[in-house]
Amino acid sequence: MLKIWGRTTSSNVQKVLWTCAELNIAYDRVDHGGPFGGNRDPEYLKLNPNGLVPTVIDGDLVMWESNTICRYLCNTRPNGHSLYPADFAARTHVERWMDWQLSVIGAPMGALLQGLVRSTPETRDPAAIEAARRRAITAWEIVDDALASQPYLGGDSLSLAEIVLGTHIYRWFNYPIERPVLAHLSAWYDRIRERPGFKKHIVMPIT
Ligand SMILES: N[C@@H](CCC(=O)N[C@@H](CS)C(=O)NCC(=O)O)C(=O)O
Predict the structure, then answer these.
(1) Which residues line ligand 1 (CB under 6 A)?
(2) Mapped to the 3 state alphabet, what secondary structure does 127-179 carry?
(3) What does the buried/exposed string (b/e) look like for 149-166 if buried means 16 or more CB atoms within 10 Å of the residue's CB?
(4) Residues 57 and 100 in one domain
(5) pLDDT tens digits, one per residue of 16-64
(6) At which of 30, 57, 82 does a domain end?
(7) What pLDDT is attached to residue 88?
């Protein structure tokens, strides 16, 4: 059975868990990282030299990097190509948002997490929070535009594009910040948060 190392509150673990939910993949998960610790244990570092979660083991195969893990699951499990198209051209529409999650939206959303959730009144930096909020708005406007003509980022149905952005959009709409009205983005959020996998693995206190 697939083995997943990682706490359920980690955004990168959540992607893997939501993918498993969509594809009905059974797994055995171990709480690890964050308050559970263990990331610097020598035995864990042999599996994942980054000392981060998730790490996923499938038979003899050890994997880290959550987007890679999600792609692997789609490529190897029944119905996986519903989330990650087999057609190479269609696939680019999903892949680009997976790369965009890492290269564009990840940094400002990470800064908001640090500033709004993980700081203390003494360490909070309002200017940094505001800069991150503005950078995030610019990025979410790109998603809003992309959704003007289609219900999902990859086209007509949910894909890994939504799954890797799921935690970010949940946090965006739940942080105590001012947000511009972005109608397509809101409608998309309403669509994806109906998914049982989103309700089970994404909706939870942000820590
Ligand atoms: N690029 C990596 C990033 C992994 C990562 O940063 N994981 C965070 C949690 S979201 C982590 O392990 N933080 C330390 C911890 O949870 O103990 C991936 O996508 O898997």
Answers:
(1) 10-12, 33-34, 39, 52-54, 64-67
(2) HHHHHHHHHHHHHHHHHHHHCCCCCECCECCCCHHHHHHHHHHHHHHHCCCCC
(3) eeebbbeeebbbbbbbbb
(4) no
(5) 999 999 999 999 999 999 999 999 999 999 999 999 999 999 999 999 9
(6) 82
(7) 97
Question: Which atom of ligand 1 is least distant from the CA of 6?
Answer: 16
Domain span holding position 53: 2-82
Which ranges constitute the DSSP H helices of the chain?
11-22, 42-47, 66-76, 88-100, 106-112, 126-146, 160-174, 183-192, 196-201
At 105 the three-state DSSP class reads: helix
- Provide the total of helices (H) and of strands (E) in the chain, helices listed first: 9, 4
Amino acid letter, residue 1:
M
Ligand 1 centroid to 183 CA: how many Å?
A: 31
pTM given for the model: 0.97
Do residues 39 and 46 touch, judged by C-beta distance below 8 A?
no
Instruction: Tell me if 201 sits within 8 A of 70, measured CB to CB.
Output: no
Give the tokens for residue 167: 């935690």
| Residue among 140, 153, 142, 145 nearest 180 (CA) | 140
pLDDT of the residue at 44: 98
Q: Do both 22 and 72 map to the same domain?
A: yes
- Minimum-distance ligand 1 atom for the alpha carbon of 37: 17
Q: How far is the CA of 182 from the centre of ligand 1 (A)?
A: 29
